[in-house]
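DM from R.C. (forwarded with permission)

"hey, sorry to bug you on a friday — could you get me a structure for this? deadline for the figure draft is monday and I only need the backbone to look sensible"
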Amino acid sequence: MEELLSYQSVEICFSGETIIQDVSFALHPGEILCIAGESGSGKSSLLKAALGLLGNEGLVTKGDIWFQGLDLPDLKEREFRNIRGAKIGMIFQDPAASFCPVRTIGSQIYESLRAHQNIRPPEAKQKALELFHSLGLPDGERIWRSYPFELSGGMNQRVAIASAMLMKPLVLLADEPTSALDAGVQKQVVMELMSLRALFGTAILLVTHDMGVVSAIADTLLVLKDGRMMEYGNAKQLLQQPQSPYTRELLAAVPRLRRT
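My reply, with the result:
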């Protein structure tokens, strides 16, 4: 099967200290791949490395991350502009970090769309409202007019996911998208991500420490501990018969958020 995004023997260092060692996996069209592990295991750095977001101290020191014939760690900042958002979308752990607090949701959505295509405000609004409706977000007009502080944390996260999908990227990177939310809203976010896959065939690479989220959404699972791969394969099989003691520890720690 075609590989959309491929990590090959990736090593990542921060200030000379290695935090990811020899990690390899591939994301395929329509696949939901979860990277699970405790905080500090390096999960988020794997996502950020794909979009050149490791900051001044972080660096991919070995290996390759391939996307559409491009080795992403080799790209210059200006070369990422055609990829970030348009081809690879990203949502973050903190819903508040997704939006500027002093501008309306609608104005920010329009600006992000205009950065990649020639579009007028009414067309941008129509696109957004149609997607909000498709994803079951209530009262799209109110969301469009709202400032982020006027929405709940859960609604901000759901709107951030919808906004990231307006460009219909091939890949969506999700960095702990449910960790700041209560259990009821977590389930809504998981269902929204699964709806995106159903609507657009989007491939999703999702980082989480919550094995309940993994059990609800993942096709494929990569377990990471201290920057090293513990196991990688079919999520259902690994959840039922984990080979690594570390995976068994993770499973014992958290109740599962079951599919409905």
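R.C.: lifesaver. The chain has ten helices and ten strands.
me: no worries. Strands lie at 5-14, 17-27, 32-36, 58-67, 70-71, 88-91, 171-175, 203-208, 220-225, 228-234.
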